[in-house]
Every structure is written in C-alpha cells, then in structure tokens.
Design brief:
The complex is a heterodimer of chains A (about 290) and B (about 400). With about 290 residues, chain A is mostly helical. Chain A has one domain: ABC transporter involved in vitamin B12 uptake, BtuC (Orthogonal Bundle). Chain A is about 75% helix and about 0% strand. Chain A contains eleven helices and two strands, in the order ααααββααααααα. Chain A has a two-stranded antiparallel sheet with strand order 1-2. In chain A, strand 1 and strand 2 form a beta hairpin. The relative contact order of chain A is 0.22. By secondary structure, chain B is an alpha/beta fold. Helices cover about 40% and strands about 20% of the residues of chain B. Chain B contains 14 helices and 16 strands. In chain B, helix 3 crosses helix 12 and helix 13 crosses helix 14. The longest helix of chain B is centred in the N-terminal third of the chain and has 25 residues. The chains are: A mainly alpha (about 290), B alpha/beta (about 400).
Amino acid sequence: MSIEALVQVLIGGILLGGLYALVAFGLSLIYGVVRILNFSHGTLLAVAGVAASLLYAAFKLHPVVIMLVLVPALFVFGYFFYTVLLQPLEKRNHFESTVGTVLVTVGALLILSDLTAKLAGATQRNIPLRFEAIEIGEIVISTTQIWIFGAIAVLTVAMQVFLRRTWFGRAIRAVTQDPVGARICGVNSSRMKAATFAFGSSIVAIAAVLYTMSFPVDPYMGFGLTVKAFTIIILGGIGNLVGALLAGIFLGVAEGLTGFFWKSEWAPALSVILLLGILVVFPKGLGRSR
Amino acid sequence: MRSLRYPLLGALAVAAAAYAGVASAKLGSCNDPILLGTTISETGPFSTLADKWRKLTEVFAEEVNRTGGIQVKACNKKVPIKFVIYDDQSVPATAVSLYEKMATVDKVDFFVGPDWSSMGGPVPPIGEKHKIPMVAANIATPALYDRGLKYFWGTPFPVVPRWSERYFDMLSKVNPKPQSIFFVTHDNPVMKGITGFWSKKAEAQGIKVVGNETFSPDLKDFTAMISKIRASKADIVYISSFDGASVPLVQQMRQLKVKAMDVHHVMLTGSLARQVGKDIEGMTGELAWYPGIKGDYSDLVETVMKKADVSMFDYIWTLGRLSSYLVMMQAIEKAGAIDREKVKEALYKGTFKSPAGDIVFDERGFPDNGAFTVQMQGGKVQVVWPQNVATGKLVWPSPTWQ
C-alpha cells in the first residue's frame, strides 16, 4: 500500500476520533460529577442527530443555528431527566441506586430509540452539507471535516477554559474531586449534579450536529457510540477533556488502521476489545482524573 | 349441577359438529370466494419494505375479481378470490401462530406469503402440517428449500445465482471492457452469498478480482476501505449490500473522489437515492422489474401498483410479493379445482407467467428468477440491460465516476 493511502487513513482516523471525543466529553462530565453511567448518552446523540437532520431538511437551517436550537432543548431535557427519574434513586441504598440508574438509563435508551423510529422512521439520515475537497497528490481531504475538526478543537479549549475559569466549572471540578469538601464550601451538590447532567446532555447536541454532518445517524445506533465513549473516558481519564480528545483520536486512528492493514469488519469491535483489555490490565484506568 | 352437565356437553358437541360441518363444506366450494391466507410485515423492522402491501393486496383482489376471478374448470365458472390478511409484526413466532390460526380458524384454502428468510424457517412447516400449499414471496435463502417440504414454493426476485447475470452479460459487451473489479460486501449471509457467487463468475469472465472487503453494518467511517479501492484502481466497484448499510460508503466514495468505469450496487433503491441524493447519479444496480417493461400480467401489476400507490423503486420486493399471488392464481387455474392436492400437483416443477418472465420451479420449489440492470440517469431509474427491454440507453463508462 502507498504512503498516500496510509496518510489518508490517518487523516480520516483523526477526524473520526475528534467526533468520538466530543461524544465522550458529556459522558465524562456526567460520570465525574453525578457518578452515573448514562447508557442512553449515545442514543441521545442519535436522537439529536435525527432531529438536526429533520431541521436541516425542512428549513435548510445553518448547522450553527441548528445547534442553537438543540443545545437549550437538550439542556432542559437533561435537567428534567435527571431530577425526575434519576435523583429520587439517590435516596435508595447503594445497590438499589446502582441497579435503578442502569435500568432507567437502559430503559431510556430503548424508549428514545423506538419513539424516534416511530416518529421519524428508522432509516439513516444526515446533513448533506458538503464543501469542495482539497486534493494534495493522491490525498483527498474533505473541507467539511476540517471545519468539523476545527470546531471540536475550539470547543475542547473553550470547555477547558470554562471548567477552569468560571465558578460553575470550578464547582463541577470541586464536586468531581471532593463532593463533601465542595458541600462544606457552599456548593449545592444536588443542584450542581442536575446542572452538570443537563450541561453534559447539551454538549451532545453540538456533537450530534457535527456527527450528522459527517456520518449518517439512525435511532438505533446510540449504544455503540456509548461504548466508544466509555472506552475514551477510561483511556483519557474522567473529567479530562484534553485526555479524552487524545484518546478519541487514538481510537479513531486505531479503527482506521485496523481496516487498512487488516479487515474493516473488525474496526467497530476494536473499542470493545480495547475497553476489555484496559479493564483487565489497568483496572483503575490509564488517564488521571482532574 | 350434575343434571345440567350432560345436556350442556351434548349441546356443545352438536354445536362443534355443526361448525365443523359448515367449515368443511366451505373449503373448496364453488359458491364462496377462494380464501387466500397471508401475513404482511406491516409493523416491526421489515415494515419499511412492506407497509403498503395490505392496500396492494386488496387492490389486487379487486382487479382480479373485476373480471369474475379465477377460472375453475370443476366449477365451470370464474370464482372470485378473497384475502385473509394479518400483520406478522416482522416476528417469526407471531407469523407461525397467525398461519396456524388461518389454517384452523379462518380455514383458508391456500397460503400466499410470508416474506423474508427469517420467516422462511418456521412458517412453511405449518402448511406442511395442514397439507395446505404455500407460495411464499420473498424468501431467498436456497437452504430453506432443501428440507424436503412438499407444500412449499417461493417467488423471490432475484435469486442469488441469477442476481447479477444481466449485469455481467452487459460487462462482457461494453466498450471499453472492464479488466478489474473490487467487491465490497455487507456482513450478511445473503450479501456474502452474492459476492461469493459473482466473484467466481467475474474471474471466469476474465475480470480480475483486485479486492474483496467485508464491512460490518455498524461501520460509519469507510476511509480505510476506500483507500484500498483507490489504490487498487479497479474498473468496477461492486457493492453487495443492503441499501441502508451502504449509505455512508457511497457518500464517502464521492467525497474521496473514487474513480471507476462503474460503481454497481445490488440494492439500488429509492431509499438509498433519497439518503445519498445526487451521489447516486450514474450508479448501476438490479431491479426485478420496472413499469414499462411489457410481459405477462404487466398491465395488471402496473394497475395494482398505481392504485395502491406503490413504487417499484421504493418497494423493491413488490414483484416477489405479487408473483406469489400470480403463481397461486395460475396454479388453481391449472389444477382446475379448488383442491389443495390438485393445486400442489400443479405447482410441482411448474412454470408460471410473470411480468419479468417465466417463473420455473425446481423440484425443491425454488425458482430461477433474475433481474434487470438499471442505471440512475438524471435522477431517474432507467432499465439499461438487456437492450431489447431497455427504457434508456446505457451511459458507459459512467461519467460521474471519472
């Protein structure tokens, strides 16, 4: 195989990994603060992606405008999803609470998928917005994907600044690192958890629009994305956004190289294999939580 | 209580005997419509392929009955048909119980349908158990016909050994002639079967197979595979995949500027066209039949599809479904009686007419149905091969992939 083909695969892997990382950001924040493994996280992206595609098809809205519509919608959804369905489980004992959150989030995954399929159909949808590609010799780079990756990089930096410089961000980090200490310092833990769940859900809206510009989405694809996001946050560290970005790129490139040097049919399974491998060899994860 | 027991049991026995008498008198009667029992996947995962078929089936019965129905020699007249239709919800277990119900409660004369290979395993034994001939529709897996069933036939369009027959015939006659081919296969038994069969045919025809890649339906990023396709410089890219799974593949092939004489898709459908938009332009594919191609019953089929608002491009399995009705109709006519055993004899190794040509059953009840080669031209589907039935002229090599 030529070096150009390999470079093409690496570029594709980096762009794909950036999208994976964006999916993982919200899940990472939610787990870091609320300590809930939200199995419906990827499905929320799939549903938001379908909604973004429908908005684009119906009104030809610019992707940024679609984000402006979906971000507050998912913030509100996330807030009520947590306060109505998940927060009451905190009053139960540890076992019941853990089993309860798994049942609620898996149940939400199934209901959201079926409801979306019923309302919008089960076929794949995307935002068919395409800019001219750049060709350097045999290498073709999609400018759409360059814009998307640029947006992901800017968003990573902006969120990192937000988490370090704002009161809300510091409160999130405080609750992540020491929930008791944060409460002593006046941080309302339960309100902060609800706000973080809502914030993590709203990031999904941005990820959904960018993802749908690159790849088709369907109501039933969410769980696979959730598994990839789990892999990324274990690789990159809970609450560590830059770590998540690097881990996402690692996963995207690894999938690309698997398809290139071996067989494409094995690429989607790679995240599960990596996840199992890391959990067996490094049970405490690779990344450092911040 | 004891005094009531015997009179009650007696009354029930009389009622049951009377019901059984009525039911058995009705079977094969010349004075009642011929009852055809079927299930359709109106809900569930297969519903996107079949959700308009209830209306299609009802319109079919109306059109046949408009001329009196089916000519039955033993009745010395035409007998109208009537469908008993249930929704199998795309679930094999539901279909099994519904066919059992149609055999014992509705007491249908014959079965037509169901569709899909997943139903083809458990449903046909119901027909076997009750000795009711069943002409299933889109059950394409050949192994399902190898079970020694004596009351089971199928009308899938096309079957694997004839799927791309006309396309490869076309490749042998076009100029410039393709020298190499790259197979891209959806990880699914039917699609793998198509690739397995046609990659051997390609080699036999002197077209070198320069790549053979399989992809999982979950794969979204095809960059690695497309890099291999580009590096192979294949003249033909042959995509053996269900339409939905290949949407990102087709889109990314365009984005990454794949060049070829032709990109061929074995399931070139309206759904794929809607999802990939103008990326589909110039691609070739297979279609069992298309309105405009004249053949036996083509006027009836065109009328039924028009009245039921079913497009062949959107519901590509429709010909398989309608052919199951057409075959059963012809078998009853051929048998000359509304008699299950006589109809079974008429179906065995029989030849029946359809708009796409003769349906010839082998001893297993498996047909040898083929498909026409189509090409997307100006956003519309055109039959381009064989030339004698073409609705448009083949554009070769496809300019959109240059």
